[in-house]
Write a structure and sequence with these properties.
Blueprint lengths: L9 E7 L4 H15 L14 E4 L16 E3 L2 H7 L5 E5 L8 H7 L4 E5 L6 H14 L2 E5 L1 H4 L1 H12 L5 E11 L1 H6 L11 H12 L2 E9 L14 E8 L4 E7 L1 E13 L2 E6 L7 E9 L4 E8 L1 H15 L5 H23 L25 H4 L24 H4 L3 H6 L12 H6 L34 H5 L12 H8 L4
Parallel strand pairs: 1-2, 1-4, 2-3, 4-5, 5-6, 7-10
Antiparallel strand pairs: 7-11, 8-9, 9-10, 11-12, 12-13, 13-14
Helix pairs in contact: 1-9, 8-10
């Protein structure tokens, strides 16, 4: 039976240069030791973490990490600096490559901290669990989505029941990682990148589930290159309690976003996770069934909090840890999703797994002349009143004088329309008054004196008509009476 380690504990980071080992684990440990306060009092010693480079980083100089890490070139050298019983191994190798664990076990190390997921398939999971059971390993799993403040607040809402039961969980992973995908030797599938974290969150909130649907997509073609199954993924889970989880992952997104929407019986909450592995701010938007809303913004450092939780469990709990079964179930669901995605994929050689929209050749209609498109303007037809004898214009009434300027303006015919001026219109507009100024009132036309008596107009066909002067010699009409007479002249 294994004995519990006694603090202080010292980290051994295996896999510097792999995954997020140096960039994330070392910096999160530094923040934990510097800002932990009473929570980490006596938990860590004064010595820096020890780092063991794996693969391309093996044999690197001690300062190659660029951080306060004492780098060794073998696990034999690490055992000379460390006491395995009080050493926590941060295994930062990819989940598909845990072979170094056998050497760690042979050297006496028993406290192991892993990044989620535990493995990429059921075979890898069985090997890991079998090794842990045989050597009584204490395994902790770090998952930013479970260790952060968002998950803690959601679990509190589920436990107290103030919003009712969980009905639907919608997850969106938008990650711009095309460069990393194209440079990887074995990129895997899009289901291995982000969905493990959201599946773990869904199981924690809504209980155990089964895979209902799963698909994967290729990357877009860039410079003639295309990586299969690494463009994105879709996954649907059916929970035993009745809830549904929909996960969408886009690994070719132009911008990063990690968002979760949880719908309850009596409300919903939208959660936005901090981007990256460094400390940031998380946001939650709560909405109740009666429309009340609340916005919570708080500083969140899920990786540091995950390390603190794991170190506490190492010194207080025995294996297996409570969350280990949940993370094992995540691996099983991922394996089911990959198998379902393969069955849903098209037959090789027929069409690509991702059917990107094909540009459709649309025949443009033959341009129609503008003259044919525009409606033919209809000349403005002023109603012709019955002929009446000329009457002296009466002074304008008070009601007409008080008419609003806008109404007067709309009484005028549009300037762009041809107007047929009849005899009546000639009389009406004999002395028009500008109305463009809203401050000016329309005054009645000033009465003009009658012109001198004109000789009797000759009748057509008479001798007098032949002797009449030509029209060009007639006087240009100036008054309203003259305009009437001019309009009535013979053709």
């Amino acid at each position: 039976m294994s004995t519990r380690p006694s603090p202080p504990l010292r980290p051994l980071i295996v896999g510097l240069g792999e995954s997020d080992g140096m960039a994330a684990h070392v910096r999160a440990l530094r923040r934990l030791r510097a800002e932990g306060g009473d929570r980490v009092a006596g938990m860590f010693g004064t010595e820096p973490p020890v780092g063991y480079w794996v693969g391309e980083g093996a044999g690197a100089e001690p300062d190659a990490a660029g951080v306060d890490v004492e780098v060794v070139d073998s696990l034999v050298q690490a055992t000379q600096l460390l006491y395995p019983g009080n050493t926590v191994v941060h295994l930062c190798t990819p989940p598909g490559d845990r072979t170094v664990m056998h050497e760690l076990v042979d050297r006496g190390f028993r406290l192991v901290l892993l990044d989620a997921p535990l493995a990429v398939d059921r075979d890898g999971l069985r090997r890991l669990v079998g090794l842990a059971e045989r050597y009584r390993l204490r395994i902790g799993v770090v998952d930013p989505w479970l260790n952060g403040g968002i998950c803690r607040r959601l679990l509190a809402a589920v436990s107290d029941g103030r919003l009712g039961a969980v009905r639907r969980i919608s997850v969106r992973h938008s990650v711009p990682r095309l460069a990393q995908t194209f440079s990887a030797e074995q990129p895997g599938t899009a289901l291995d990148v982000e969905p493990p974290h959201s599946i773990a969150l869904a199981l924690a909130l809504a209980g155990m589930a089964e895979v209902a649907a799963a698909t994967v997509e290729d990357t877009p073609t860039v410079d003639g290159r295309r990586v299969a199954d690494m463009g994105g993924a879709r996954l649907t889970l059916r929970h035993q309690a009745g809830a549904t989880t929909d996960i969408f992952c886009d690994l070719a997104a132009p911008m990063a976003e990690q968002q979760v929407i949880v719908e309850f019986d009596k409300g919903s909450v939208q959660c936005n996770y901090p981007l990256g592995t460094e400390a940031g701010f998380a946001q939650m938007y709560w909405t109740t069934e009666n429309g009340q809303t609340r916005r919570d913004i708080f500083a969140d450092d899920p990786l540091r909090q995950g390390f603190l939780d794991a170190y506490r469990l190492f010194v207080t709990e025995s294996w297996p840890q409570p969350s280990l079964r949940l993370h094992a179930r995540v691996v099983e669901l991922l394996a089911d999703a990959k198998a379902l995605a393969r069955r849903s994929a098209p037959t090789p050689g027929s069409i690509p797994p991702v059917q990107h929209p094909t540009p459709i050749s649309v025949q443009q209609p033959t341009p129609v002349p503008i003259a044919a498109q525009q409606p033919v303007p209809v000349p403005f037809q002023q109603p012709v009143p019955a002929p009446v004898a000329y009457q002296q214009p009466a002074p304008a009434t008070a009601a007409f004088q008080q008419q609003a300027p806008a109404e007067i303006f709309h009484q005028q015919a549009p300037a762009a329309m041809p107007v047929q001026h009849t005899t009546a219109m000639a009389v009406q507009h004999s002395a028009p008054t500008p109305v463009h100024s809203p401050q000016r009132r329309m005054d009645p036309p000033t009465p003009q004196p009658f012109p001198a008596a004109q000789p009797h107009m000759p009748q057509p066909g008479s001798a007098a008509m032949a002797a009449a002067p030509p029209p060009a010699t007639r006087q240009i009409p100036q008054t309203a009476r003259q305009m009437v007479d001019y309009a009535r002249r013979p053709a």
